[in-house]
Write the structure tokens for this entry.
Amino acid sequence: MAVEKICVVVVSGTRERLQMAAMAASVAAVSGMEVTIFLSMNAVPFFIKGASTDAPSEGKFGELMVQKNAPDFKTLFRQAVELGDAKILPCSMALDIAGIDTATLEPYLGEPTGLTRFLDLAQGAQVWTF
Amino acid sequence: MNFDKDLDARGLNCPLPILRAKKALTDMQSGQVLRIVSTDVGSVKDFQAFCKQTGNELVSQAEASNEFTFFLKRK
């Protein structure tokens, strides 16, 4: 059976969307799917080393996740890489606009990637956007 | 049933039982059996799908007192 390819585009900086993206990506990766996560826009600053995962909630559910000690989204993304060989690629445009140095990013992230390269990777894949 | 490793996933919500199981299986040899106990009601279908996707064998599953027990044989 051919390996299923999943591309997860994460642009949101809200807790619920980051959490759902991390849950979906990590489960897909540990289930043997080939997962590529493209981080852009408001999602990127959370992946600076040591950055807080205290993202603003969109609604009540985000607050409930904090109260119930749900695993933080960065832990789930890291497990997608460590346990499922997922790749997390930061958007080169977002890094440039936000003035973020690549050396300051979490070590489990891959190389800065442009949209053309990402679209090449996404050929034939399911694409989920958060 | 005999097992080689035990995973207590009680009290953990989706997707943690699956992620913990994957981590446990990574450290095991082919043919070894992992026992998992979960309280997540979605875990029955989740472990069936996980085994279908990964090729690990779901040897048995059972429910008692709102706890779900799975025996997975590593591929």
Q: What stands out?
A: Chain A has a mean pLDDT of 96. The radius of gyration of chain A is 14 Å. DSSP finds five helices and four strands in chain A. Helices of chain A lie at 15-30, 60-67, 73-84, 92-98, 115-121.
